[in-house]
């Protein structure tokens, strides 16, 4: 599966080390994808990395990816000026299952984990079967809270949005504390709640436990796992995690079966 | 009548909900409803820890003062939370400031009164200790996780 050329048409800085790239395919429209899936993005001459789609599915002429500058490939992406050509393969993997969502939905994001959930939240707020959407977001500091405009839009569209930071600065008037501390006061009905969780794996583990303690079914908690995705097709085995090949069987998995134990492991 | 109102509020608070009615009555005898304007201090670092609060509405910041950086917010608390635990152990002195971030409604519990009742009836003291310990453990675990700096960028492979 060969990369298809896309041009960077916009680059938006989300925080000091995170940017969102809007990519436009050369000679066509973006492929259909589902919220939660990822693409393999190529920085030519540097390498390829798995990056979740951060824009909502739909008919937009561009597809957005939010990238954190953590290595050579992502550094090349984060510094690519508009006009740069990049390669795109995909979409790959499983999705958040928004089509089946109903009742209450708790969306919990930590750090850049909000990026793969962004499209899902837009869809949840448009779904007639979803009654209440609770969005809780944790970040290291106020400067690292991403998608500020989206957070406001989601709140005006009816989502209960709460943001917390680990370390406040003098201008911060919001919540300070662990993201799980935002879950306690939420008035969702555990018996009819689904949850979507994305962030550092320790954060996901503790968030899932807090949801389970309230009575949410493990099969209705979805988390997104990140490992060393390479082929995207389940052939090369680099992303194997226990019985899962995460590029194919993930990144989104339900928090039941073997998954809680897998959160303690690296890929094989 | 006022005491019964306080007892109802105390019963409804997560810290004490589900306790036997006679014990709630005992504890309510040490309680009163209080309100604070935004900016008011509920607790002051270094002052005697003779009161703690069950928050009913509004948010409270746990702060530490820095001569250079001003007040630093360690954590924020809200309805259903408990503010203050230095009252439990000697030297009964508040370790941090607690500041109302917005108008706050709370139940203030007289710690001297509670300690006296717990000493007189250890079963009351044990139940109270169990409940407060659960809050302490929860906060300690959250603090440990925050120390990990979870959102820091992973090292490149």
Any overview of this molecule?
The complex is a heterodimer of chains A (268) and B (157). Chain A is α/β, with parallel strands linked by helices and 268 residues long. Helix content of chain A is 19%, strand content 33%. Chain A is built from six helices and 15 strands. Chain A is globular, with a radius of gyration of 18 Å. Chain A starts with a strand and ends in a 6-residue tail after the last helix. Chain B starts with a helix and ends in a 10-residue tail after the last helix. The model of chain B has no long low-confidence stretch (mean pLDDT 90). At the A-B interface, strand 10 and helix 4 of A face strand 5 and helix 4 of B.
Concise description?
By secondary structure, chain A is of the alpha/beta class. Chain A contains six helices and 15 strands. The radius of gyration of chain B is 17 Å and the shape is globular.
